[in-house]
Amino acid sequence: MSTLRRIAVTTVMMAGFSSLASVVHAAEKITIMVGGEDKIIYLPVLLATRLGYFAQQGLDVAVVTEPAGVNAENEMIAGSVQGVAGFYDHTIDLQSKGTEVESVVQFSNVPGEVELVSTTQQEKIGSLIDFQGKSLGVTGLGSSTDFLTQYLASKVGLDRDDYRLVPVDAGKTFISAMRQHLIVAGMTTDPTAVELLSTGEAKVLVDLRTEAGTRDALGDIYPAACIYMPTAWVDAHRDETGRLVKAIVGALRYLHAHSAEQIVDLLPRNYYNGKRTLYVAAMKSFLPMFTSDGRMPAGGQQAVLRVLSAIMPAVKAADIDLSKTYTAAFVESAAKSAK
Q1: pLDDT value at position 25?
Q2: How far is residue 227's CA from residue 217's CA, in Å, rounded to a whole number?
Q3: What is the dihedral sign for C-alpha 240, 241, 242, 246?
Q4: What three-state secondary structure class fits 142?
């Protein structure tokens, strides 16, 4: 896996757990690629690692990172990783291209993204219609930030060739692109957004970090962060998938039972780079957006399909079977185990 950026290789089977009756030995290693490991929206994966939940389930899980979710998707299709912590919308996009993958556990009901505008451009960009002729940042072409940006622009009548999408990843590269005026606006998530907002270098144009903001901008909720995996792999490894989901659901429950400060205390310091107060504030505001049980919200799949159908002819033309894009079997099993 030479193309993978190994940031945290995690949860190798620990000898201390081998004596516990609850531990079941895993048959093989599972590699999960996260579309940006320090993004708050993907926190359940990191927490499951830091809290030892994967090991408690008898799993040998490696977590690797790739800033752009679309690149993580490509690694999964190539067989380099078994699953991706990314956005649910990729399951629909891939099905329209003939590739079947499914979400096995949902993290949140909203994207957690925000469209930022550089304050140097705030007099020129007061609404989405002002994107015409501008360079807009996204994590990657074909990424969920790409999908959402296209949809928002289409709502005000802009065609795809009316603006330029620039792949700038997230974090330092996104911030640098805005500071160097390579982009005048862009879609990103926390902690990238909160850093630019705290310095006054950017302002919010569209906020998809809350349910109210998401409904206002997209017309409905938009279930996003999840773990999706190739359907064939899931079918062949149902036991391992079930235990993986139990670990993630345990992390989701932990998020709802602890304060933002307690959660941040568990994270590597490099995640907030000396800006702990800002990271805690961003965490505190997003915590209510995490699901407590990993379930897909009612109507969520249809809402995402509606958005993608509006901007992707291939999705609109395809006979998308939403039942194949998400399975509740594993979160239901996790709920029974918890009881």
Answers
A1: 47
A2: 25
A3: positive
A4: coil
Instruction: Give how far the C-alpha of residue 298 lies from the chain's centroid of Cα atoms, to the nearest Å.
Output: 19
Q: Which two tokens stand for residue 48?
A: 């499951």
Q: Is residue 292's pLDDT more than 90?
A: yes
Between residues 172 and 3, the one the model is more confident about: 172
The model's pTM is: 0.89
Distance CA 28, CA 239 (A): 12
Distance CA 324, CA 230 (A): 11
Q: Residue 123: name the closest of 63, 213, 184, 80 by CA.
A: 184
Pairing type for strands 101-106 and 113-118 reads unpaired
Query: In the predicted model, what is the mean pLDDT of residues 318-336?
Result: 96
Q: Where are the alpha helices (DSSP H) in the chain?
A: 43-50, 53-56, 69-77, 89-96, 144-155, 172-179, 192-198, 211-218, 231-236, 238-257, 260-264, 276-286, 300-311, 313-317, 329-338
Q: How confident is the model at residue 4 (pLDDT cuts 50, 70, 90)?
A: very low
Does the structure show a pLDDT above 70 at 221?
Answer: yes
- Residue 115 is which amino acid? E
DSSP state letters, 188-222: EETTHHHHHHHTTSEEEEEEESSHHHHHHHHSS--
Torsional class of 21: left (φ above 0), alpha (ψ -120 to 50), beta (otherwise): alpha
